[in-house]
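Provenance

Sequences were taken from public entries as deposited. Structures were produced by running a predictor on each sequence independently, with no templates supplied. The record for DNA topoisomerase from Halobacillus salinarum is shown for reference.
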Amino acid sequence: MPKVVILAEKPSQAKAYAEAFTIQEKNKTYIQLKPDDTFPAGATITWGVGHLVELKEPHEYKPEWKRWKLEQLPIVPDHFLEKVSKGKWEQFQAVKKLFQQADIIVNAADVDREGSNIFYSILRLTGVKGKRVQRLWINSLEKDEVRKGFRSLQPNEKDLRLFDEAKARQISDWMVGINASRLFTLLLQKKGFQNHLTIGRVQSPTVYLIYQRHKEIENFVSEPFYQIEGLFQADKGSYKGLAEIKDKDKAKVQALMDKHDLKEDEDTKGIVQSIDKKTKHQKAPKLHSLSTLQSVANRRWKYTPSHVLKTVQKLYEKRFVSYPRTDCNFITENEFSYLVKHVNQYQETLNVSFTPASLKPNKRYVNSSKVQEHYAIIPTKSVPTQKKLNALSREERNIYQEILATTLAMFHGDYVYEETVIFTNVHELLFKTTGKREVKSGWKELFPKPAKQKQEKEAILPELQNGEQVGAEVHIKESMTQPPKPYTEGQLINMMKTCGKLMDDEEDVEILKEVEGLGTEATRSSIIETIKTQNYIEVKKNIVAITTKGIMLCEAIEGTLLSSPSMTAKWESYLKKIGTGEGSKQMFIKQTSEFIDKLITETPGSIQQVQVKSTGEKNNSNSPIAKCPACSSGMIMDRYKFYGCSAYKEGCKVTFPKRLAGKALSKNMIKTLCEKKRTKVLKGFKGKKTFSTALKLDEDYKIKFDFGKQTEK
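Predicted structure for DNA topoisomerase:
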């Protein structure tokens, strides 16, 4: 019988798969399953630890590419090579051995292009060939869904196309990041800039959109505008109304007052000319995609998009919700049928009770033609007990209840309200008043009530009669135009998704609409985290602000395609074609190379106009840390990605890494090593477990662990 080896993306995913079957043996690098109906000869589940494999760094192709020099650009290897990621050699070797022994290899990584990339990058680097490869394609980690998925494994043709798409994206992002970051940094350093810029295909246009909003706010000049407001007193209460004029010129508004013989703040009479009442229905919101969930959670609880993704991922791994990295708001009839069966249980979990308005599928939510790889985020059949619900963190509980409420809302009745429009005639000038009254709360009863301030904004109108005479007092109301507001983190997710609305070119708008803006559902939150880490933006009280460094980046890339969402959109559009077999990976990489050549030619001229400013960051590259322990002439300096001797031109090759075994090495640690040859015991190193150790310099000036001095602190 064939030997089956299954590769999961990470240990937690492997554990979830294994729990759907009977486990025979657990090992630190794999789990062995007992034979059963699905796997008559049993099966072995192993895993990556995220990316076991990554693209090589420039200096691993050519040593001279380690130094940042303009004359070395463009950096484009003839062939792109991969290596085992740092600290993951042992797991890679275990996976390689299992692949060599297998007859059938199953790709059970996440069902998206990055999952395909992780699997095939590992497979390719192991050198294992000629094996039958199949694909697990599921949207839930529930035991019966896992078993069902493994019983109906798919061929890998589509998966290979997704791998080509992902690899084209990865290589092109590497090329843009390496070349553009060096190009702009080195040109700005010639003008006195003392730090580094990191430039990315998606992150840079995202920063630029935030910069555009910053400029709009900065350049906004508030201007007054004028309206005529009426205050009315009826038998059963008071209300307000506005005449149909809104103008920057107060004289025009005053002229209308004079025409109707109206004087400010003078008591007069008005007549209720018409009362128009309409009953309106509001449908329940669509089911959640990741971005809608991130937006709601940010608005309601100020959770960052990355925190929402981590939280919903935990719920997925606990089998309470379906696959989270989805851009879809629809489900198929299959999901709908199990949701119907669990409506009562879901209500009990949410502590609500209502009679479903309908148990039939509605195209607003259930539409198989709109579901591609993944359906919307919904609760699974595994409904948590009260004990399990209480064991969730507050964030997990909030997110789960939001998903549950949004799913239950499609079974609930519409929110029904009565909208009233009143026209009050004062000296033949009409004043319009609108009001809203709730008739049925419907699906809204499933969600937390909005804040009081929001509720108070909606006018409560008194009971009025047609033709009723009312007391009237009118005046010219002065207001000021308001600048656009800065983005919140939740709005940033929406802005990235809908930035096509900001484009002028119709073709670009259509492409951005087709690919849903900047980034993908799975990557937008990590892009925001990246530009935060790079100090291009800062977030205070959920408000996104661009930094001085971010402004400098945007001034530098202004006018280039790096500032334009349309470039990213066109790339994503072509990447999708690679995924469907209509495009070519080689063509995409060739076009990226041509783009970089153009950038290298044009940027030196365009960057002359950029004014170099202090970014407020420390000047890392020019501050001596300590005397070089190897030579007498050099100083150890911060070289951005590593520490190195300033006498490298004279032949001193001493360098120290910035990270060792998962721990950042500070300048003080490096200074101590250079001066005393060893440090005190330090905590926070990561291996199979977290450990503490002192560090020492050996005779070749390499940093080594010193476990012999553990008593010293």
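The radius of gyration is 31 Å.
The first helix runs from residue 11 to 18.
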